Amino acid sequence: MSYSNDVKNELARITPERECCRKAELAAMIALAGSVNYENGLSIQLSTENAATARKIFKTYKEIYHIQSSIKVQNRRHFNKTRVYIINTPVDNELQELGLSQDEKYIPRRIQWALLNRSCCRRAYLRGLFLAGGFINRPGADYHLEIMTSDSQMAEDMEKLLARMKIKARTSERKNNLVVYIKGSEKIVDFLRLVGASMALLDFENIRIIKSVRNNVNRQVNCETANLVKTVDASLRQVELIKKLINTGGVEQIPPRLKSLAMLRIDYPDCTLKELGTMMNPPLSKSGVAYRMRKLEKIVEELIQDIE
Q1: How far apart are CA 246 and CA 260, in angstroms?
Q2: CA distances, 63 to each of 27, 56, 57, 69, 87 (Å)
Q3: With bands split at pLDDT 50, 70 and 90, how would you rate the model's confidence at 77?
Q4: Alpha-carbon distance 92 to 84, whole Å?
Q5: Is the pLDDT of residue 185 over 70?
Q6: Which ranges of 1-135 would DSSP assign to H, the alpha helix?
Q7: How far apart (Å, rounded) are the C-alpha atoms in residues 156 and 163?
Q8: Closest among 133, 108, 85 to 35, alpha carbons compared
Q9: Rg (CA), the chain
Q10: 8 Å CB contact between 201 and 181
Q11: Could you tell me if 17 and 71 lie in one domain?
Q12: What residue numbers bound the domain in which 238 lies?
């Protein structure tokens, strides 16, 4: 089962305390994915692949509007066998407050702002939007949450609603649809918190923490590896210069304090500058050794050029 489906299962099992929130949630699903059906009388039709969402729609119609919906199950083949739940609900005058047109011939693809006066209703509406057309990536791969619509006005309204809830979203085209999407782990966490997906939020945070720790470890290892390579390269270069000077007999021309450092480098080619500093008498700091080593390299290069 996908992470996105897990999130929908959790959201579908949330029952808002206020009736206004339950209406807002249902209105969101109708506005985003509902259609008018004329078979066997006039009805509003909603389809979903999530069984928990289908139960929620059926239950809300029954408890709020006292209307008995019908549910039909279809099996569709899309990569693998997918079960789709189709909920048909007879049209009632009261349902017009959820967004049905006055002549009951179509469903306007826009947000019914009159239903969203309370903050709790706005959160419920976002929950309904995600249930009807949302998708979220498992955070181990990438941070991406989206809600799909076929209407530009609906996409614009969703962006406005998310902006009111302090979540920045963008819209892009995908084939014949528009996708309102959220990028960035912090914004997705905010969305999950707003819609009440507590368990999904914990799961998301756990995966995000593990990913962050792994990335930090990788960065540290890469940094240490790079530093080690630089240290080894510098050591090899220094040893090669000093040995070349010894072979040409010019080592006695090096000042005594630099000569002792040169001999230590020859004897301990794998040591860092800090470690070489502790071996000197008197001991030197890493920066002190680095200064002397640069001076030593310059003198050695000049002596070799003179000898050659």
Answers
A1: 13
A2: 15, 10, 10, 11, 15
A3: low
A4: 25
A5: yes
A6: 3-12, 19-33, 51-65, 119-133
A7: 11
A8: 108
A9: 34
A10: no
A11: yes
A12: 222-307
Q: Which residues contact 121 (CB under 8 A, 6 or more apart)?
A: 18, 20, 21, 24, 115
CA torsion, ordered 38, 44, 48, 53, to nearest 10 deg: -150
Average pLDDT over residues 63-75: 89
Read off the pLDDT of each residue in 98-122 and give the average, rounded to a whole number: 83
Q: Are 36 and 107 in contact (CB under 8 A)?
A: yes
- Kindly state whether residues 172 and 233 are assigned to the same domain: no
| Nearest-angstrom CA–CA distance, 153 and 86 | 25
- Mean pLDDT, the chain, rounded, equals 84
Q: What's the chain's length in residues?
A: 308
Q: Is residue 191 part of a domain?
A: yes
pTM greater than 0.90: no
Q: Which amino acid is at 188?
A: I
Tokens of 194: 């707003």
Q: Which two tokens stand for residue 48?
A: 């979903």
* Type and span of the H or E element at 35: strand 35-37
Alpha-carbon distance of 168 to 160, in angstroms, equals 9
- Residue 73's domain is classified under what CATH number? 3.10.28.10
Q: Token pair of 110, please? A: 């826009």
Of 180, 177, 125, nearest to 150 (Cα)? 177
Angle between helices 19-33 and 51-65 (to 10 degrees): 120
Please answer whether residues 46 and 29 qualify as being in contact, where contact means their C-beta atoms are separated by less than 8 angstroms.
Answer: yes
Predicted local confidence at residue 9, as pLDDT: 93
